[in-house]
């Protein structure tokens, strides 16, 4: 793709009419082939599971469960990875409406996004090579070079991190809109009088701002391409294509607005860990950027998670850092000389720049999905270089074409097979973390996560050593100390558990899990006052099981005549889990049981009980009985009898005849009482 170094030596001498008639068929065939390669590469991955951040972003994200309010889908994302990324959030909501949490549907959408992104890569490359200043030397091979690059990239194993890891739709969808922006801009350059192509470019870029902040670089790259290869300089580019560039740069304020909306991700974006400062982040990125380049060329080993420890040893980052600076210097030199290949280098650095420098994500110091779009630039560069070498050393056109086809098939087949093998690692969460530990045993986060999955799989005894190793590798992480302390407590090692959980509390004084489990450890040691105090604090700070904890804490506080505190604990549980039937029912009981008439509220209790019953879909008879108790206290015996009839029906459906008959007797008595007290009743 160089302006003065050929990527092919033959001129395009075919008649214009023949080229036009052949173009549509060739294009459609190419798009079909790219889609087929993508489907073949990822066809065995539809049984992949939700992993890691997917539990926050997708299957544990209440904001995507309803399409009743699209604004709520966008604005109520909390700490999820799609906070401030409305296009992705909406895609999740519609995906959920279509297939629920059936992962095949999520994989199907992710694969479709990836294939369409590859289509835009093909279209952009072909058009760039067919336009000045590259057309004279490269137009004859533009179709094949673009097809080879897109077909290899769509199956590239490095893209699995953005296709199979479902929550990384943020990366692949941004990549799609980024490539679409470049393609529509190229169309606008070829048709300067058109208003359609600049509008489509601006729309693509605007949609990209709702996916990931990396789209920031698209307007810069379009202006750079225009200035170097189309108009001659930046001033002429702006004058010639003002509408295009104005529309693209107008997306920056929109991006800024989404970034401001993304305050929910404030815990992961920025220098949030004390051991990761500016210098530590840059040294880590010096290694990471070189690592992404190597994986783009030789994708092995692929690692799902690299942990949170920065790379500070000069023996690890210095040499890669020098290579990165050399590549950057070559890119700048090539751009000054207007070399086409240097633009691919610009794509690499501009796309990586936000997350590798100015907008650090300290919870993901090194992640392979960041190389999703940059790897396309590497693949395109390698294909162009291979085409140039073939044209230099293979004189016969047919032999050159055959050699190109064979090379493309060989590399494409290797990519497909490797990607299909990698897909199998996404089949289970525990298997993926095992794979990470096999490749990177010093990853503390992987040790802790694997321990969590062992517990979930019923293999709790095996989890302890992994929790201990996570703490050894990263002793200042309070979350992993909480995991270890909880494991120690559950395995009867109370003294060690208390010590570990107290260390966790020192690091994370308001972490609900630590407070709840430390309280449990003290309770098991017989120190009930300490336990109660810690449990109350846990409820105020997001205890992991707020309903169950409130049900345990409130009777203890009532027993100590601390009714106001009991109600406060129950209300904290409801604030933490407003859709937890147990939390709602516990608060309802507390409102009925308190001995303080000023605190008692049967009206609120009845509403809470009814809401809890609805959340349980009318399958919990005790909630109907609780509602009846509230209605009785409120003097509404007739309505209470109706609630008891509901309870009776549920008890009978569950073959609990004794409970059903008891509910029926009580309902009959309440109805009789209601009738006897009704106005105009002779019995009064």
N-to-C terminal Cα separation, in Å?
A: 99 Å
Rg result: 31 Å
Give the strand content: under 5%
| Residue share in helix | over 70%
Name the overall outline.
elongated
Catalogue the unreliable spans. Answer: 1-14
In terms of quaternary structure, the protein is single chain
Describe the model.
The protein is mostly helical and 684 residues long. It contains 32 helices and no strands. It starts with 15 loop residues before the first helix and ends in an 8-residue tail after the last helix.
Brief digest:
With 684 residues, the protein is mainly α. It has 32 helices and no strands.
Task: Describe the SSE topology.
Layout: H1 16-42, H2 54-59, H3 70-75, H4 86-99, H5 103-130, H6 135-154, H7 160-163, H8 169-190, H9 196-209, H10 217-230, H11 234-240, H12 242-249, H13 251-261, H14 278-297, H15 314-336, H16 340-358, H17 372-393, H18 397-423, H19 429-439, H20 444-456, H21 460-473, H22 478-490, H23 494-507, H24 512-524, H25 528-540, H26 546-559, H27 563-576, H28 581-593, H29 602-615, H30 621-633, H31 637-653, H32 657-676
What are the defining features of this structure?
elongated, mainly alpha, about 675 residues, about 0% strand, disordered N terminus, 32 helices, Serine Threonine Protein Phosphatase 5, Tetratricopeptide repeat
């Amino acid at each position: 793709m160089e302006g003065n170094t050929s990527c092919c030596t033959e001129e395009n001498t075919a008649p214009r009419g023949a080229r036009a008639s052949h173009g549509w068929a060739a294009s459609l065939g190419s798009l079909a082939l790219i889609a087929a390669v993508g489907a073949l590469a990822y066809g065995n991955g539809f049984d992949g599971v939700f992993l890691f951040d997917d539990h926050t972003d997708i299957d544990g994200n209440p904001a995507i469960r309803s399409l009743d309010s699209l604004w709520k889908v966008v604005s109520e994302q909390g700490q999820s990875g799609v906070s401030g990324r409305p296009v992705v959030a909406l895609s999740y909501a519609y995906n959920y409406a279509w297939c629920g949490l059936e992962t095949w549907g999520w994989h199907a959408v992710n694969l479709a996004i990836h294939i369409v992104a590859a289509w835009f890569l093909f279209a952009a490359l072909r058009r760039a090579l067919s336009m000045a200043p590259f057309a004279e030397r490269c137009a004859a091979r533009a179709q094949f070079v673009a097809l080879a690059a897109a077909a290899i990239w769509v199956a590239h194993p490095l893209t699995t991190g953005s296709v199979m890891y479902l929550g990384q739709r943020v990366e692949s969808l941004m990549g799609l809109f980024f490539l679409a922006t470049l393609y529509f801009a190229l169309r606008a350059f070829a048709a300067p009088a058109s208003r359609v192509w600049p509008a489509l470019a601006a729309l693509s870029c605007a949609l990209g701002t709702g996916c990931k902040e990396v789209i920031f670089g698209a307007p810069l790259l379009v202006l750079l391409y225009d200035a170097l290869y189309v108009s001659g300089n930046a001033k002429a580019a702006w004058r010639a294509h003002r509408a295009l560039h104005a529309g693209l740069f107008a997306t920056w304020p929109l991006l800024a607005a989404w970034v401001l909306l993304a305050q929910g991700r404030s815990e992961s974006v920025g220098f949030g860990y004390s051991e990761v400062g500016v210098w530590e982040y840059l040294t880590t990125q010096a290694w990471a950027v070189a690592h992404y380049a190597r994986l783009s060329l030789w994708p092995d080993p692929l690692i799902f998670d690299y942990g949170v420890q920065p790379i500070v040893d000069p023996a690890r980052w210095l040499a890669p850092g020098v290579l990165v600076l050399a590549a950057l210097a070559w890119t700048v030199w090539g751009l000054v000389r207007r070399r086409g290949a240097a633009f691919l280098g610009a794509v690499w650095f501009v796309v990586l720049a936000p997350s590798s420098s100015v907008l650090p994500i300290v919870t993901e110091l090194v992640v392979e999905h960041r190389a999703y779009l940059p790897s396309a630039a590497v693949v395109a560069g390698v294909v162009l270089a291979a085409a140039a070498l073939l044209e230099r050393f293979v004189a016969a056109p047919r032999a050159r074409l055959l050699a190109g086809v064979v090379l493309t098939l060989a590399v494409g087949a290797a990519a497909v097979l490797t990607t299909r093998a990698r897909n199998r690692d996404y089949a289970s969460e525990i298997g993926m973390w095992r794979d990470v530990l096999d490749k990177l045993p010093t990853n503390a986060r992987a040790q802790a996560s694997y321990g969590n999955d062992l517990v979930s799989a019923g293999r709790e005894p095996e989890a302890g050593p992994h929790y201990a190793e996570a703490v050894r590798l990263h002793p200042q992480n309070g979350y992993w100390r909480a995991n270890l302390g909880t494991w120690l407590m559950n395995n009867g090692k109370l003294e060690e558990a208390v010590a570990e959980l107290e260390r966790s509390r020192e690091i994370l004084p308001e972490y609900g899990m630590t407070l709840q489990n430390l309280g449990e450890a003290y309770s098991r040691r017989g120190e009930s006052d300490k336990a109660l105090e810690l449990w109350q604090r846990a409820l105020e700070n997001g205890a992991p099981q707020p309903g169950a904890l409130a049900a345990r804490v409130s009777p203890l506080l009532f027993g100590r005549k601390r009714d106001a505190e009991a109600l406060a604990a129950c209300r904290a549980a409801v604030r933490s889990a407003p859709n937890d039937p147990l939390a709602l029912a516990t608060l309802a009981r507390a409102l009925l049981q308190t001995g303080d008439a000023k605190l008692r509220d049967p009206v609120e209790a009845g509403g809470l009980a009814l809401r809890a019953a609805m959340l349980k879909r009318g399958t919990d008879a005790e909630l109907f009985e609780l509602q009846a108790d509230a209605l009785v206290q409120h003097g509404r015996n007739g309505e209470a009898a109706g609630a008891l009839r509901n309870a009776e029906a549920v008890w009978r459906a569950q073959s609990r005849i004794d409970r059903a008959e008891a509910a029926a007797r009580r309902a009959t008595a309440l109805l009789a009482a209601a009738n006897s007290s009704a106005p105009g009743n002779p019995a009064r």
